What does this fold into?
Amino acid sequence: MISQEAAVASQGTRDGISVLAEDVVRRFGDRAVLDHLWLEIAASEFVVLLGPSGCGKTTLLRLLAGLDRPDAGTVSVPQARAIVFQGARLLPWERVWQNVTTGLYGHEAKPTALSVPALVLLDEPFAALDAITRLRMHGLVRALRHRRDTTMLLVTRDVDDAIALADRILIMRDGRIGSEYLVTLSSQDRSRGHAREELRAHLLVEIGASS
It folds into this structure.
């Protein structure tokens, strides 16, 4: 049952903020998958939510997409939003723009032709791609983001995807946002160099994947 304190509001960007989640709780049985979570994403920002399986990142993405509702807290998102799923749902033979515009627009999940999404949610869309295709898709997502000035949130377990694309990387664990990393690397430095490897090492430790 959804508590009266819980709400998901679809609205335009206000005060430069595209996504705002305040004290959000989502429970499944006795387990709090999202545990009083707070999240703020600025308009036009590319944020990557990085964390291991089971940390709650996909549950949060579903709330932002309108596919689920919180048990407590509030979620404010733009009305025009789209979601790109992982695997075969990201159609390699279609333009990225066609993929996102066949996504979700509000809770009814009815696409609006030619609408420009203010928010694009990406649920590990590169997971099943080979290395060359993954790099090509990185470039297409960057181009879409800059051409449309769109806010993007990528959910992933892959630190290389995070470094390649993010303005800001958020580490999620135990249903909450933990550490935050601002990524100021140049395009070239995102693919190679000491600064990239240092950031990568930190991120691997954060998600418990360091050797």
User: Anything to note?
Assistant: Residues 164 and 186 are 10 Å apart (CA to CA). The radius of gyration is 17 Å. The chain has one domain: 43-69+77-206. The chain is about 25% helix and 30% strand.
